[in-house]
Amino acid sequence: MLEDIISKHSASFASGVHTELRAQVNKSRRVTLLAGNLTANSRSDVSGVSARVYKNGVYGFSSVAEMSDDAVRTVLKEATSNADFMDRHIAKGKALFPAVSTEYIAPGFDDADVPQKDYIDFIRMIDDYIAGKYKGLTSRAVVSTSDSMEKLLCTSDGVSGHTAIPRSYIYVFLNAETPSGVPVELFKAFGGSGSFYKHFSSPDTLYAGIDALYEKLMQKREGIYPEAGLKTCVLGGELAGMLAHEAVGHTVEADLVLGGSVAASSLGKQVASELVSLTDFANTAFAKEAPLPVYVDDEGIAAVDSEIIKDGILVGYMNNRETAEHFGMKPQGNARAYLFSDEPLIRMRNTAIHPGTSKLEDIIASVDDGYYLVDTQNGQADTTGEFMFGISMGYEIKNGKLGRAILDTTISGVAFEMLKTVDMVSDNVSWSSSGFCGKKQPMPVGLGGPEVRCKVMIGGR
Amino acid sequence: MENLKLTAQKVLNLLKDGGADMAQCVATYKEKREFNVDGGEFSLFRTTFDNSLVLTAFKGGKKGTISINRLDDEAIKAAVSDCIASCDSAVADDAWEIASTPDSRRFEEGCVTPDLDKFFDRLRELMENIKDRHPLILMEQLIASHVKTDSLYLNSFGVEYETVGGAYSVDLMYSAHDGERGSSFFGSGVVFDSLEKPIIELASIERDLSDVEKQVDTRPLEGKFEGTLIAPPSSLASFLYYALSNFAGDSTLLDGTSIWKDALGTAVADERLTISMNPLDERIVCGDRYTGEGYIAENYDVIKNGVLNSFMLSQYIANKTGLKRAPNDTFSMVIEGGDVSLDEIIKNTKKGIIVGRFSGGQPGTNGEFSGVAKNSFLVEDGKITSAVSETMINGNLADILKNISAISSETVCDGTSVLPYIAFEGVTVSGK
Lengths: 461, 432
Prior knowledge:
The complex is a heterodimer.
Chain A: E1 18-34, E2 37-55, E3 58-64, H1 69-89, H2 116-133, E4 139-155, E5 160-177, E6 183-193, H3 196-199, H4 204-221, E7 229-235, H5 237-249, H6 254-258, E8 278-281, E9 284-285, E10 288-289, E11 306-310, E12 313-314, H7 321-327, E13 335-336, E14 345-346, E15 350-353, H8 360-365, E16 369-381, E17 386-398, E18 401-405, E19 409-414, H9 415-418, E20 424-425, E21 430-432, E22 436-439, E23 441-444, E24 446-449, E25 452-458
Parallel strand pairs in A: 7-16, 15-24
Antiparallel strand pairs in A: 1-2, 1-4, 2-3, 4-5, 5-6, 7-25, 8-11, 8-15, 9-10, 11-12, 13-14, 16-17, 17-18, 17-19, 19-25, 20-25, 21-24, 22-23
Chain B: H1 2-17, E1 22-38, E2 41-59, E3 62-68, H2 73-89, E4 103-110, H3 116-133, E5 137-155, E6 159-178, E7 181-182, E8 186-192, H4 205-213, E9 218-220, E10 224-231, H5 233-248, H6 250-254, E11 275-277, E12 300-304, E13 307-308, H7 315-321, E14 333-334, H8 342-347, E15 351-360, E16 368-380, E17 383-389, E18 392-396, H9 397-401, E19 404-413, E20 418-430
Parallel strand pairs in B: 4-6, 9-17, 10-15
Antiparallel strand pairs in B: 1-2, 1-5, 2-3, 5-6, 6-7, 6-8, 10-20, 11-12, 11-14, 12-13, 15-16, 16-17, 16-18, 18-20, 19-20
């Protein structure tokens, strides 16, 4: 656990500016068994201190890869000097930010450091299970990853913090071929927030999930290409979460709004059907702890939920302190940095579409001719809200019943148009939290949603 | 550099004391100076001082790797202990190998000492040039940096490489707007080691900005056709990265899913296509001089005149498969220009699409790709007729490599690669 070497330096913060001082360690562990070969076996610890100084509308930032009083003095001096440089060249003359509350409550965290042997032994048992039971695979991979961001923060507003976001996952990839020799692949991520031991006590707890994954792969082997065009589709919860994050969430990050995103002209307007509400949750969602809870951000703002879409109307953006001033909104704890050497950026936390009242089986029964799209492997969108998601598992729906599986395909559309077609929303939310969001820096994020019925373009072959 | 040498030597000694029979260490010190523009305005000046130490040990055929960024004794001792523990828990595999011929070299590359005032002047000039010449452009973000790197590679066989390098880079992310009409965002980037030229003249930045301004007005494509995909360097790099990773890279050769696994020495592409990985090319800025396994990097051709000349394999995968290691492990891709101009390629296109950016997932190992054509123009009867939106393209990477109709005489060098425009036939383009 990090030792507090920064608090005592708050007395030396320059006056007339905002200062944030941070000490941080990022840990990551990775072990990969590819077709039984241990192709990755690595551990990484990255730590150091950084300071950011805000002066008259510009920022100076500096970091040093050391945990020492000298390093703290260096980053404070360099960040101040960099802010002076920018102020000299780019005179914006903006005022300081309004004062913020220094109150927030963050629970403790589990910082158990797991020996590499435990990761390897565990996934070897998983790999042995797959190799022993399933002979028809063309390849397989089992990957164990753990990462954590532990931060100490001290700001000129008087906010101090000591928080961490640890998470641990095991990914299982299974590959096979269709009867005509087309490769098909599926993967599943097990795990979530917290240490490896919290999720992985015994390999047999994963076997049912692996068996289900294999069954799905065998269905996919016999799959068909979907018929291309605008279709009625039921999106699975993780796909709805991907839509919430990629196609809506990024467009309402205030820095991207200032950069010209579609949301710049949509505030207060209807952007989705009345059945759709969407929130970037800070630490608690639907009365449970969110997958990757955030309690205070790296500008020292106590994290609260950011309401984005309410009953189909775009009601807010995600901000840092500077953009909140610009838009006349409140900062809600979205400014987060990945490494000690990174400056805080506006980032999502746990972004989800709210559940509705329909049952999944009723939604499927309501579709005469369409598709149930269950899993996605990737998704991209841009600030126009135009999106493309790869579909790795799905089924056709004929006369209200699930039919054959489909082969890999894509769906595409424009978020604020497609969301207006949502006419049924299930009462069950699925979350995923194993990925990184990319935006100059990576960042662990949670995303989720219920099953939704909508109209969307699906690619054929 | 002396500190890095002492650190690396100390690490090797400790790893050997811990029982390693082979070991390597890469110690690096980096200084980064970075300017940011957000929403069209300069916002941040950032300086970072970073270390990294990557230790790899092999013990009885078992491998462990640890990376840290602290170089103090306590951190090094803990890292060595973790590294040996990782080895002990690994699976023995005789295929692991690192460079074993003693060698000592020093490399100095690029512009080691930045001229920050001049760099900042060039950046202000860039922003002014964009404002004057491309008034519809809204700069979402510009990240401009100079990175100075001191690096030392040392292994237990007496291989020692010292590298001192520095380079500027500029990455721009922008879109064009006219009232409430707007284009998709687009990214341009360049790595360079001289401040002699205005930045807008480097790589394809000026042309990219002009193209994006023309994408304010788009129309969705109606229907579907099979035609020509004209890939500018911006999307060509993605298509070729996907193809070569899937067909010639470590993972798919190891697990046997590469569709080129038996194709060495046979035609896999049009005979006009030669794809080289040339980190030593003078147009590549600060190209890698040695591989991750300690071998001196040499330029090589993956595909030569359409024939698969080499896989892109590490020594480890080469040993596992009985194939040859690639002479470098970079993606410093060089394709020389062809004999026809881009204008001629467009004139000769009956129906096709110029795809500035491909938004799609990683194609499967069979090479099937499907995704949205972003920042793209429709070409009909030899002319660009409109920018398009909500348009998808589908095809197969292995098939289109054999189905090239033209390679442009123009090439774009962005400091990391040199690429022309290539026209591929047989791609399905579909709209609403």
